[in-house]
Amino acid sequence: VQRDLVERARTGDHDAFAVLAGATIGRLDAAARLILRDPDRAEDAVQETLVRCWRDLPTLRDPDRFDAWLNRLFLNACRDQLRSAKRRSIEVVLPEIHPLSVPDTQSVSADRDEIQRGVSHLEPEQRTLIVMHYYLGLPLPDAAAAIGIPVGTAKSRLHRATQALRAALDSDARRRTELTEGRF
Amino acid sequence: MTQRPDVDRLLATWSQDAYSPPAPAYLTKVLDRTRHTRQRRAWASLERWLPMALTTDRPAAPRALRPAWILLIVVALVVVAAGIAIVGARLLKPPPALPVGGSAVLAFASYEGDATGQ
C-alpha cells in the first residue's frame, strides 16, 4: 500500500502524499520532540521534513527506500534545528515529552513514559541515536548512515547512551522512592 | 527500597511499541504548504543519477574533515592556476628581435660614409 502511495505522490498526486504524511507525522513529531526537547522546534523540523519530502519525492528512484529516505530528511531537519539552537544559545525548557499521552497504569504506556523521561536527560547525539534506533526502529547500520558516523562509533555511542540512560532512570527511581517515602 | 529499572527491557518494549501517536494539529498547515510547493523535476537531482547506496547509505564525511577538504581543494586550485600561469607565460614570450638560424641580410647605414670617403 505504501509503495503505491509513494509511486502516486512521486508523480504529483497530492492526495496520496496527504495519506503518507498523515501516517508518518505522528511518529515523526514524537521523535522530534524527544530529540529536540522543544515542541516548537520539533514542529519546525517535521514541517521542513515533509515539505522537502513532497518537493524532492520525484527524485526518489526506489519507492521501497521511502522510509530510509524520509528518515534521512528528518534527521537533517533535526540537525538544522539543533545547530540553530546552539547558535542562538537558547536555554531550552524541558517540555512534557508526550503531551498527548496521559499517564496511566497500563504497563506499556508507563514504560514508554519512563523511557522517554530518561531519554530527555541524554546528550543530543545520544538522544538522536537512541530515538533513531529504538523509537523509529532503524537497524544500527542504517541509523549510523543516517547520522553520518561509522557503525563502530554508533555502537560505542549507543553503549554510552544506554549507560547514561540507566543512570538517569536510576536517579529518577531514587527520587520517586524518596518522594513516596516522604523524605522531602 | 529503590527498585532499579530494567533498561534493556524498557528499551525492548519501547522498540516493539506499536503505538502510533495521533497526527498533530499542524498537519493541515503542512499539507497547505505542500499544496503550494512545486515538486522538483526528477532529472534535476544529482541523486537521480547516482547509485541509491551512495546517496542514502554512505556515511557523511565527519564534520572535522570538511574544512580540510576545502583547504585541499583551494591548494589544488592554486597549484593548477600557477601551472597555467607559468606555461602560459612561456607560450606568450615575444619572438626574438633577430632571426635565429639561417642566413639573413643585415643592412647598415652610416652617416660618415664608407671607406672610400664618398
Low-confidence stretches of chain A: 90-105
Strand content of chain B: under 5%
Shape of chain B: elongated
Computed CA radius of gyration of chain B, to the nearest angstrom: 39 Å
What structural category characterises the helix and strand content of chain A? Answer: mainly alpha
Shape of chain A: elongated
Coarse structural class of chain B: mainly alpha
Number of strands of chain A: 0
Q: Mean of residue pLDDT of chain B?
A: 74
By oligomeric state, this entry counts as heterodimer
Most extensive contact: A-B, 59 and 44 residues
**Largest pleated sheet of chain A:** none
Order of helices and strands of chain B: HHHHH
Q: DSSP strand (E) fraction of chain A? A: under 5%
Architecture overview:
The complex is a heterodimer of chains A (184) and B (118). Chain A is mostly helical. Chain A contains 8 helices and no strands. Chain A has helices spanning 2-10, 14-36, 39-56, 66-88, 107-119, 124-135, 140-147, 151-180. In chain A, helix 2 (14-36) runs antiparallel to helix 3 (39-56), helix 2 packs across helix 6 and helix 7 (140-147) crosses helix 8 (151-180). Chain A starts with a helix and ends with a helix. Chain B is mostly helical and 118 residues long. Chain B contains 5 helices and no strands. The model of chain B is unreliable at 57-61 (pLDDT under 50). At the A-B interface, helix 2, helix 3, helix 4, helix 5 and helix 6 of A face helix 1, helix 2 and helix 4 of B.
